[in-house]
Amino acid sequence: MTGIVAEIPILEPGDQLTRAEFERRYHAMPDCKKAELIEGVVYMPSPVRYEGHGEPHFLLNGWLAVYAASTAGVHGADNASNRLDIENEPQPDCMLFIHPDCGGQVHISADDYIVGPPEFVAEVSGSSLAFDRGPKLRTFRRHGVNEYLIWRVEDRRLEWNILRDSNYVPLTPGPDGILRSEVFPGLWLHAESLLQGDLAKVLAVLQQGLATFEHQQFVEQLQQRKRR
Predict the structure, then answer these.
(1) Rounded to an integer, what distance in angstroms lies between the CA atom of residue 190 and that of residue 203?
(2) pLDDT value at position 6?
(3) What residues pair up with 121 in beta bridges, in sequence order?
(4) pLDDT, tens digit, for every residue of 146-164?
């Protein structure tokens, strides 16, 4: 008599699962492009539009990719699942993290997952704004994600949150309108240019940040940690 192989249930929004069961079902759905587990609850976003998500996502990735390419020891990821604890496995739109060899907060598991809180996470938020500013923000804050950027597409705003004393506070731009990361020296952003889709201006301002002494010193510190 042959054994009966149980069918793996599909993921459904609102399912309440452990991370292990969430991953088991997610792996059994190769056509599913994005699902997240936040506080033990499954979230599955709607299909994404061009101006409402696709283009902003592309612009953010371009900005972050240039920074990572110019900063040895800093790595990035696009839509990578992030294991935080038994009830939380978000899949952020973009992230930057210091490589574990250079003293970062994350490590890469044997099965190739990012484990632990990245130093920087960014989300493009349209219909998902309440989720990104609610349960997801609280999860990132509790786990120690140092900086959390939310691009509010519908009302054309950026929220760059900085973790201070276990709470998020807004990062304020300088008189020149430039936002400057506190965790990643040289990661500069001219918010208005990003909101207008002017990637050339965004990257020109970023190059100014990359040319600073603070960025050079940061790279040297990362390499010193790696050598140790």
Answers:
(1) 9
(2) 61
(3) 95, 148
(4) 999 999 999 999 999 999 9
Domain boundaries, the chain: 48-227
Q: Output the pTM of the full model.
A: 0.91
Which tens digits make up the pLDDT trace of 12-58? 999 999 999 999 999 999 888 899 999 999 999 887 888 889 999 99
Q: Please tell me the number of Cα atoms within 13 Å of 173 on its side-chain side.
A: 13
Q: Name the CATH superfamily for 48-227.
A: tt1808, chain A (3.90.1570.10)
> Length of the chain, please?
228
> Which pair of structure tokens corresponds to residue 44?
């599955």
Which pairs from 1-4 meet CB under 8 Å and 24+ separation?
none
At residue 220, the 3 state secondary structure works out as helix
Element (H, E) at 187: none
Residue 143, Cβ density class (10 Å: 0-12 exposed, 13-18 middle, ≥19 buried): middle
